[in-house]
Amino acid sequence: MAVAEAIDADLLRLGGFSGPDTPEDDLLRACVHCGMCLSSCPTYRLTGQEMSSPRGRLWLMRAVADERLDLLDPLFDEQMYQCLNCRACEAVCPSGVHYGPLVEASRAQLESHRPRPLPQRALRRVGLDWLFADARRLRRLVGLLGLAQRTGLIALGRKLGIPQRLGMGDLETLTPRISRRPLVPGNERWTADAVNGAPATVRLFNGCVMGTVFANTNRAAARVMARNGADVALPVAQQCCGALHVHAGMMEEARALARTNIDAFEASGDDPIVVTAAGCGAALKEYGYLLKDDPAYADRARRFSDRVQDFTEHLGAHDLVPPPKPLKRRVTYQEPCHLAHAQRISAQPRALMAAISGLELIEMKESALCCGSAGIYNIIRPEMANELGDRKALHVMETPAVEVVTANPGCQMQVSASLRRNGSLARVRHIADLLDEAYGGAKTKRALIGKPDLRRK
Ligand code: SF4
Ligand code: SF4
Q1: So what's the pLDDT on residue 447?
Q2: Are residues 106 and 152 in the same domain?
Q3: Which of 23, 166, 183, 198 is most exposed, with minimal Cβ within 10 Å?
Q4: Distance from residue 63's CA to the centre of ligand 2 (Å)
């Protein structure tokens, strides 16, 4: 009996997907194996292996769905997490295979069924569930990191080789200059400059990294929108978008964050929700899909997603007030995957740069190929991420550009670290900072009204 039970238990462990968040069969069957996505896939380009291509990964998902491959087979785990979820395959697929939700559901299946070592589970719980799920907590931690950076503690640690000794060498080089003051929703708002017609109202999505590490970039974006006729405010109760959770297969945690954000933005009616991080924007635009089976939120999630616009998409939809200050320099543009592929926004950032007098945009090779950032990919898979980062740095260095412009914090950190590693002095900037400079920057004080309430929420 004991032997029979053991065999039964073993048989139960073999097989396909089960439970919630199963890759949808009709999405899987849309792939006709044409191979047109292969050359767009960064991991296929690096390895040359079919299994590391979108077609190979879709084949693996089908094999698990049809119970020809065990969900717990290490090959499946390896390939689902070697994928950057950059969605380049989706953008070129003639059959319209919606790859993102498939790989995310496959990861959710792995996280529900595959036992993980305790340290890994603890790291996910503390990092993603505890820290990123609470904006106040994250602000405090980033505030401490910023203080350590400004007082030279981080530089001292670097001199003593502490990050390397802790195996955090790559993480350390990714640390950007942290904004001195976080952007706390409800504490600051911007009023529109007089432009033709009544001012529009925009709700800014703050984001966990953008609202802390890059808080000044969010302020720059708000100033630029105000110069273009929008009142800008940040709904108070908003939280992290949950993109990192979706990418890590933590769907319930992502849904909880999505519900919080839907509640937080609902009172602002149909006002556009503008996002400065491409990764957050792609996740917010997919709340309708994430909550499609939740009867209380499905319709509300769809309405929320319909309101979401990337910062460049929002500005690109209106006649831009010409930026008054010429910027005489050469720049190149790094396309964030979640802007170019997941949201199909490529023309608007280039059009915005073309509106800046004196600025010369010089295209680099493979501008839309993933830089290796991909959420936390560059931390958990540094080898492949570094290879992609080096490739990106090389392409930047082949141009005479002195600045790389992008629209996502992950790309900004990864490209910057890759350029430093390869000896380049080119700096990497968010497009909102570039535009803000062309409008005169914070010095004009034209858009910020009143005295910001600096009380920490
Ligand atoms: S994902 Fe699309 S492009 Fe790639 S093999 Fe399948 S059908 Fe062809
Ligand atoms: S998401 Fe990116 S890395 Fe993953 S299969 Fe598609 S193209 Fe390749």
Answers
A1: 40
A2: no
A3: 198
A4: 18
Residues with CB under 6 Å of ligand 1 are 31-37, 54-55, 58, 89, 93, 95, 97
DSSP assignments along 296-361, one per residue: TTHHHHHHHHHHEEEHHHHHHTSPPPPPSS---EEEEE---HHHHTSS---HHHHHHHHTSTTEEE
Q: According to the model, what pLDDT value does residue 170 have?
A: 56
- Whether residues 209 and 304 fall in one domain: yes
100, 153: one domain:
no
DSSP calls for 213-241: TTHHHHHHHHHHHHHTTEEEE--TT----
Give the angle 244-122-185 at the CA atoms, nearest 5°: 45
Please tell me the distance from the alpha carbon of residue 56 to that of residue 38, in angstroms, as a whole number. Answer: 9
Which amino acid residue places its CA nearest to atom 7 of ligand 1?
31
Confirm if 314 and 225 have CB atoms less than 8 A apart.
Answer: yes
Whether the CB of 86 sits within 6 Å of ligand 2: yes
The CATH number for 420's domain is 3.40.50
Q: Domain containing 88: what range?
A: 20-113
Q: What ligand is nearest to the CA atom of residue 338?
A: 2
Establish whether residue 393 lines the binding site of ligand 2, counting it when its CB lies within 6 angstroms of any ligand atom.
Answer: no
Ligand that comes closest to the CA of residue 89: 2
The tokens for 389 are 């980062």
- Same domain, yes or no: 295 and 388: no
Query: Nearest bound ligand to CA 40?
Result: 2
pLDDT per residue as tens digits for the range 113-144:
988 888 888 888 888 888 888 889 999 998 89
Q: How far is the CA of 381 from the centre of ligand 1 (A)?
A: 25
Total domains in the chain come to 4
Same domain, 212 and 264: yes
CATH of residue 51: 1.10.1060.10
User: Which atom number of ligand 2 is nearest to the Cα of residue 370?
Assistant: 2
Mutation to probe ligand 2, out of 31, 38, 87, 93 (largest number of atoms < 8 A from CB): 87
Q: In angstroms, what is the span from residue 373 Cα to ligand 2's centroid?
A: 13
**What is the spatial distance between Cα 37 and Cα 95, in angstroms, rounded to a whole number?**
10
Q: pLDDT, tens digit, for every residue of 218-250?
A: 999 999 999 999 999 999 999 999 999 999 999
pLDDT value at position 451? 37
Q: Are residues 296 and 220 located together in one domain of the fold?
A: yes
Question: Atom 7, ligand 2: which residue's CA is nearest?
Answer: 41
Query: 124 and 104, same structural domain?
Result: no
pLDDT in the model for residue 195: 78
Question: Which residues of the chain register pLDDT less than 50?
Answer: 1-13, 444-457
Task: Give the pLDDT of residue 101.
Answer: 95
